[in-house]
Specification:
The relative contact order is 0.07. It is built from 27 helices and twelve strands. β9 and β10 form a beta hairpin. The protein is an alpha/beta fold. Strands 3-8-5-6-4-7 form a six-stranded mixed beta sheet.
Length: 652
């Protein structure tokens, strides 16, 4: 065997069989059956990025061979389609040789669709010689293979089989017209029909030659002039390593694709029913929802890769960098994939947690888990807490509901109090790992209590949980608006609205509308209509500038009401003659009274008929802080005091 060496992205060397050059005829003109294993990703090529460019290249090669009397061009010998990697799985002296496609499934699937589309056009136009040549590259026509997957020279990945069969064999079940394989077949049929028939292209140009010449050259191009580099592996070759090495062409593979390939190859080694694994564990990961790219900080990644990173963090109790997800998964899973029973137990746990993650948006807002998702994961944008969140709600851990509520409410309070006090979040990833290790060491029935105690015991600046006293002392005096994202402030004010409604059954139990805006009761541009007589001096004005951005001066309104309120004075008397916002002569108080149903605003309107002052801002800042303390209870102060004392003693 002749070997060549190639350095992988991981710095290792993969020994491979020396590559060979092959055409479609070389690959398919014998009794072969190339199978794309169920663990490979589904067909994802599309018209703009792959089908149309490929067809343009094929036409360019074919037309270069259609000679005219004055044609001086040199015919284009071939078109290179890239490398494909196979592994022989079964050789039969009197039957079909079976191969697994390790890499190149998108190319080979597309080529088979194209060959079939061209054969269909040739047959419909009674071009029998060309139709026969192409048919031999698509089908194993022996009677014993009729109705079986082996009748096809290529059998795609599990998710694509029904669409492939419908497209390639129109006598079967109706095709799913939305599937990419069906779309590809339809695209190539239309293009082949147009070109072979001599119809003009989009630019109005006619193809050269007559129909017979075009059919012959297209057939020759498809069968002999589309070239691959083929790598045929033996049992000694590391197919997984080669699969990773070749992950730099075409549509990029996800970390999940690499993991899927590894998992199912390991499954084959231990004799598992990998088709069952595909349908019950992995098919869902290949759907659009999981593969959709979403923002995660500065990065944009697929949901499935993000989930696997969170899940591995939770399972390994260690920080997992995004670029190491595949390697760390295989390291973690290897010992759990030694036999069928342990492997299937492991995969069931993965599937259960994946289902939980997918259904996060369906969590009821009234539950502890639903509140945590809304308040911390979404509003505070603390996705770093996701591994701990998943730990608590995973059915694999069986944590009692009461403990789930206790733990998640403690973590919510920790996150929201620190956010409002503008404390650093630079250590949050390592803190979550430390929390996971604490949780892994205790009985599930103690999980919530453990987390509450652990957070209460934190004394480092990057980790401590602000107490009620600290919050009451610091928050009312802080400039909040402009320092904390408005989406976070909206969430906090919305929870305060819920809290104040809950204090008496007299209020309706209705949700706070989404899309509300932050409104300053005393406007930021207070100098326009709120300056006193005499006007404030520079020091007093600077003091007011700070106070108008404190918590107590903020409320919620609709966007349209926000625009109307603008910089209006508080009372109608002071607004006399004003027409801005379409409410002539009406002050801010009157507009809030007329159009806002929020308790937050009704209390301001009812208690401040004559004026809204800086002293009112100070008093309301303290009152809203009291609400926050009630909504998100703080740490165990006895534990906190004990730990601070211990920390002081250690420092000497």
């Amino acid at each position: 065997m002749t070997l060549c060496s190639r350095t992988t992205p991981h710095g290792r060397t993969a020994d491979m069989v020396k590559p060979d050059k092959a055409s479609a005829k070389d690959l398919f003109d014998s009794k072969v059956h190339y199978e794309i294993p169920p663990y490979q990703r589904p067909y994802v090529w599309n018209e703009e990025e792959q089908w149309a460019p490929l067809w343009d290249d094929i036409v360019r090669v074919a037309e270069s061979h259609i000679r005219t009397d004055d044609d001086k061009r040199t015919p284009t010998a071939s078109h290179f389609l890239g490398a494909v990697v196979f592994e022989l799985t079964e050789a039969r002296a009197a039957g079909i040789d079976h191969y697994d496609v390790i890499d190149g499934q998108q190319r080979l699937t597309t080529l088979q669709i194209l060959l079939d589309a061209a054969e269909q056009v040739m047959a419909e136009r009674a071009l029998e010689d060309e139709s026969e040549v192409l048919s031999d590259l698509i089908l194993n026509s022996q009677p014993r293979y009729k109705g079986t997957p082996e009748r096809f020279k290529l059998w795609p990945s599990r998710a694509d089989r029904s669409a492939f069969e419908s497209a390639m064999d129109p006598t079967g079940a109706p095709a799913d017209t939305s599937h990419q394989i069906v779309k590809a077949h339809r695209f190539f049929v239309a293009e082949v029909e147009r070109w072979v028939s001599g119809a003009p292209d989009e630019m109005g140009e006619l193809p050269p030659g007559d129909e017979a010449m075009r059919a012959a050259e297209l057939c020759e191009t498809l069968s002999r002039r589309l070239m691959f580099i083929t790598i045929d592996l033996s049992e000694e070759d590391d197919s997984q390593l080669i699969f990773e090495t070749l992950n730099d062409r075409g549509t990029p593979l996800l970390k999940a694709d690499l993991i899927k390939n590894w998992v199912f190859r390991e499954g084959k080694k231990i004799g598992a029913d990998v088709d069952y694994w595909a349908s019950n564990v992995w098919d869902d990961f290949d759907t659009e929802w999981w593969r959709a790219e979403i923002a995660q900080g500065r990065l944009v990644r697929s949901r499935v890769d993000i989930f696997l990173q969170y899940w591995l963090t939770m399972r390994t109790l260690d920080e997992v960098k995004s670029d190491l997800v595949f390697r760390l998964f295989t390291d973690y899973a290897s010992s759990r994939m030694k036999d069928v029973d342990s492997a299937e137990s492991f995969l069931r746990e993965l599937r259960a947690d994946a289902d939980t993650y997918r259904n996060l948006a369906a969590l009821e807002a009234a539950t502890a888990a639903g509140r945590f998702r809304i308040q911390v994961i979404e509003a505070m944008e603390l996705a770093a807490t996701m591994p701990v969140f998943l730990w608590f709600i995973s059915e694999n851990h069986g944590i009692p509901d009461q403990q789930v509520a206790l733990g998640l409410e403690a973590l919510s309070s920790w996150a929201i109090r620190r956010t409002l006090l503008r404390l650093t979040s630079k250590d949050v990833n390592r803190l979550m790992i430390a929390i996971l290790k604490e949780l892994a060491a205790v009985d599930p029935a103690e999980s919530g209590q453990t987390l509450h105690r652990y957070l209460s015991a934190q004394t480092a600046d990057s980790r401590f949980w602000p107490s009620d006293e600290e919050l009451a002392e610091m928050l009312p005096t802080l400039k909040i608006y402009g320092q904390i994202k408005q989406s976070r402030l909206r969430a906090v004010l919305g929870e305060i609205e819920h809290h104040r409604r809950s204090l008496t059954p007299m209020h309706e139990s209705v949700p706070v509308p989404s899309g509300l805006s932050i409104e300053h009761v005393m406007p930021q541009e207070w100098r326009s209509n709120w300056d006193s007589d005499p006007k404030l001096d520079q020091e007093a004005a600077q003091k007011r500038d700070h106070r108008v951005n404190r918590l107590g001066n903020l409320t919620l309104t609709t966007q349209s009401l926000n625009s109307s309120l603008s910089n209006r004075p508080w009372t109608d008397a002071a607004a006399e003659g004003m027409s801005q916002g379409g409410q002539a002569g009406r002050g801010k108080r009157a507009l809030l009274q007329s159009f806002s149903l929020l308790v937050l605003n009704k209390e301001i309107v009812d208690d401040h008929a004559a004026e809204w002052t800086e002293d009112d801002i100070v008093a309301r800042s303290k009152a809203l802080t009291d609400d926050i303390i009630a909504i998100w209870p703080g740490p165990d102060t006895a534990i906190q005091a004990q730990e601070y004392e211990r920390a002081r003693a250690e420092k000497g």
